[in-house]
C-alpha cells in the first residue's frame, strides 16, 4: 500500500525556497557577526574593509574578559553540581515515590524553565537581601543551580523512564539493599543521561543573563561583562568574543548530541535526542 | 517496594531546597507586592495600594498592552517562520532531514546575548544594513529608525525565539502517523486538503506549545528592549527592572511582577487545557 502513496514532493518547490529563506534569516546575523570580527574598520559599515586579526589579539590580551570567563566557568561548574545533585533525587522521587503535594512539587521545580528569568532573578534578589547576604558569585551560583534543577530533573526523569527496571529489581531480589542498588545499578545506568544533562546545564549557565543580571556582585560573568561593555560602545572585540562563544557552544552541542545519541539505537526517531526541557511541556 | 528511608532520602533534599530557594523567594515577592514604602523604607503594612496604583496609572497599563502587542507579533512571525519550516523538514526534506534539523537547532544554542548583539550591529545608524544601503546608493544618509524601535525588538526576538517555536511543532508533526496521511491521499484528498484537514489539526498541540513559548518568553523579556528597543520599545519587564534599581520601589515592582506571573501562569494553564483536548492517542 505504501507504494501507492508517494510523498507529494512535486508541491514542495515553493516550500523549499521558503525554508531556505528561513534558514538564511536564522544564520544571517551570525554570519555578519563572524565576518565583522575581522573588520579593521569597526562593527558596522559595508563592505567590511581592512581584514585583520587585530581584534582577536586585543581580545586575548584583555584581562577583564578572561577573568569573566573564569568566573563563568566556576559558576557553571558549581551550578552543574547543585542542579544534578538535587535534580537526580527529584527525578527519582517523581519517578517512584508518591507523596502529598507531588504534583505541586513537580510544577514548582519546573517553574523556572517557563517563567521569565526576571521573576526568578528578582525573587532571589529579594530573598538574598532579606536574609542579609551580599551579592557575589555565590548568589549567582545559587540562582543558576536552583533554576537549572528544572533542566536536570526533566532530563534525568526521561532517562529513568527509559531505563530497564528489571536490573534494579533483580539486584534487590538478590539481596542488595536500596543504597547498594542505587550506587551499583541505578547510577551506572544513568551515567549517559547524567553526563548529557550536566553538559546541557553547563552550556545554559555559561549563557545565562536574565537571572544573573539581578544576582551579580562585583565579579562579572562573561555575558554580564559583555553586557557592560555594550553600554560603553561597541568594538569588533565583542564580535571576536561572540564568535568564540558561538564556536564553543556549537562544539559543546555536537558533543552533547553525541552523548545523547550514543545511548540509543539509530532506529529511534531523531527527536528522542532532543532536550526534554525544550519540548514545551510543564507537566 | 521502596523503604521509607529510601523514599525520604530521595524526596526530602530537593523538596527542602526548592522550598527554601524557590518557593520562599516567590512567596517573598508576592508579599512585597502588598507592602508599602515610607521614607525609602519598606513597611510591612498590608494593602492593595500597589495594585490600585497600577490600575489607575495609564502608563503601566499602556506599557503592558504594548508588551503584549509586541509578544503577539513575535508569536505570529515565529509561527509563520517556524511552522512551514517544521512542515518542510518533517514531510519533504528527504534524506537531508537530519542535517537540516541540526541546522535549526544550532542557533537555538547560540547565546541570547550574541544574537541580540548581532542585530544591534546590523541595524545601527552606522551599522551593516545602513552601510549596505549607502553602498548601493539606495539611501544617502543612515536610516535611523531601524535600531531603537519596537520593530527592532520584534525582529530580534522573532529571530531568537523562532527555533524555540519550531521545536514543539516539529515534534508534533513527527508524531503524526504517516498512514493517516496516506489514507487521506488514498481516499482522494488533494495534498492541500490533506494538510488542512489531517496534518494541521493533528499538529495543534505543538503549534500551541510553540506559540506559548514565543509569547511568554517575549512578554518577560527585558534585555532585547534595552539592547535594541529604545524608549519606544520599552516593555513591562523594563519597568519592573527600573523600579528595582535606583528607584527602590520594590513593592510596586513586585506587584507588576506578580501581574506578569499571573498572566503567564494563566496562559500556560489555558493552553495546556486546550492542548489536552486536541491530543488524541
Q: What does this protein structure show overall?
A:
The complex is a heterodimer of chains A (283) and B (281). Chain A has 283 residues and is an all-alpha fold. Chain A has helices spanning 12-36, 54-60, 63-96, 102-114, 117-130, 137-162, 165-173, 178-189, 191-207, 212-215, 222-232, 236-262. Chain A has one domain: MetI-like (MetI-like fold). In chain A, helix 2 crosses helix 12 (236-262), helix 3 crosses helix 6 and helix 9 (191-207) packs antiparallel against helix 12. The radius of gyration of chain A is 23 Å and the shape is globular. The model of chain A is unreliable at 1-10, 265-273 and 279-283 (pLDDT under 50). Chain B is mainly alpha-helical and 281 residues long. Chain B has one domain (50-278): MetI-like fold (Orthogonal Bundle). Chain B has helices at 4-32, 49-56, 58-92, 97-109, 112-123, 128-135, 150-174, 178-186, 191-202, 204-219, 223-229, 236-244, 250-278; strands spanning 36-38, 41-43. In chain B, a hairpin with a 2-residue loop joins strand 1 (36-38) and strand 2. In chain B, helix 5 runs parallel beside helix 11 (223-229) and helix 12 (236-244) packs antiparallel against helix 13 (250-278).
Give the spatial strand order of the biggest sheet of chain B.
1-2
Q: Give the low-confidence spans of chain B.
A: none
Give the low-confidence spans of chain A: 1-10, 265-273, 279-283
Strand content of chain B: under 5%
Could you tell me the number of beta strands of chain A? Answer: 0
Q: Within the CATH hierarchy, at the fold level, what is the topology of chain B? A: MetI-like fold
> Please, what is the CATH homologous superfamily of chain B?
MetI-like
- Fraction of residues in H or I helices of chain B: over 70%
| Radius of gyration of chain B, taken over Cα atoms and rounded to an integer in Å | 24 Å
The largest β sheet of chain B comes out as: 2 strands, antiparallel
| Structural domain tally of chain A | 1
Main beta sheet of chain A: strand number and arrangement? none
Overall shape of chain B: it is globular
Secondary-structure element order of chain A, N to C: HHHHHHHHHHHH
Shape of chain A: globular
Structural class of chain A: mainly alpha
Tally of DSSP helical segments of chain A: 12
| Quaternary structure annotation | heterodimer
